[in-house]
Amino acid sequence: MFPNINPKQMEKMAKQMGMQMDNLDAIEVIIKTPEKDIIIKNPQVTRIKMQGQETFQVAGTVVEQETINTEDVELIVQKTGISKEEAEKLMEETGDVILAIKKAQE
């Protein structure tokens, strides 16, 4: 968190201020937004409790992944009769519902 400060000293100062800090053994952290998923691989996660609030500090390798709208996939399945997996693949390829439907109907 702060450079050139011994982690033990940092922990001691945090306790004096009424903070509790715990390191969590996490394998992966996923933050979901409407447009994409942010995946943090090999994370270092610290939970900080202070004044009744919990906050998390996360560091690691970030990978962003576009999300596919499930309503769009269902529409493609309804209009074309293809499987859900095929519809998802077409959405990934085209990025557009209308193009995916046209491609499925070819």
Main attributes?
106 residues; 2 domains; 4 helices; Ubiquitin Ligase Nedd4, Chain: W; alpha+beta; four-stranded antiparallel sheet
Task: Please specify the SSE layout and strand pairing.
Blueprint: H1 7-16, E1 20-24, E2 28-32, E3 36-50, E4 53-66, H2 70-80, H3 84-94, H4 97-105
Antiparallel strand pairs: 1-3, 2-3, 3-4
Outline the low-pLDDT stretches: none
- Output the structural class: alpha+beta
Could you say what the CATH architecture of the largest domain is?
A: Single Sheet
Count of runs of 4 or more consecutive helical residues: 4
Instruction: Output the CATH homologous superfamily of the largest domain.
Output: Nascent polypeptide-associated complex domain
Task: Offer a concise description of the structure.
By secondary structure, the chain is an alpha+beta fold. The protein contains 4 helices and 4 strands.
How would you describe this structure to a colleague?
- By secondary structure, the chain is of the alpha+beta class.
- The chain folds into two domains: 60 residues, Nascent polypeptide-associated complex domain (Ubiquitin Ligase Nedd4, Chain: W); 36 residues.
- Strands 1, 2, 3 and 4 form a four-stranded antiparallel sheet that branches.
- It has four helices and four strands.
- 6% of the residues are buried.
